[in-house]
Amino acid sequence: MSTAKEEVKSLLDRLPDECMLEDVQYHLYVVEKIRRGIDRADVEGTMSQADVERKFSRWTTE
User: Fold this and answer.
1) pLDDT tens digits, 33-62
2) What residues contact residue 24 under an 8 Å CB cut-off, 6+ apart?
3) Is the dihedral of CA 34, 40, 41, 46 positive or negative?
4) Which stretches of the chain are DSSP H helices?
5) Cα separations in angstroms, 33 against 17, 21, 28, 40, 62
6) Could you give the CA distance from residue 6 to residue 3 in angstroms, rounded to a whole number?
7) For labelling alongside 16, which of 1, 25, 30, 59 has CA 20 to 30 A away?
């Protein structure tokens, strides 16, 4: 697993040279949200596509 510093360097290498500080902040925010989501799914589990569709169908028919 890479360190936070290595991940930031990798992110900076993928962003265009003319990006703004706000772009960097946004991408770091997205990476952190994704990581937290993956960690939460590992701990709490996930739902199947069919289960999600059933749950949403109840909301749309009420």
Assistant:
1) 999 999 999 999 999 999 999 988 988 776
2) 11, 12, 15
3) negative
4) 4-14, 21-44, 49-61
5) 24, 18, 9, 10, 31
6) 5
7) 1
Residue 23 to residues 4, 54, 62: CA-CA distances in angstroms? 18, 37, 40
Would you kindly state where each structural domain of the chain is located, as residue ranges? 4-9+18-61
Residues 6+ apart with CB under 8 A from 23: 15
Give the span between the Cα atoms of 47 and 29, in whole angstroms. Answer: 25
d(CA 6, CA 48): 34
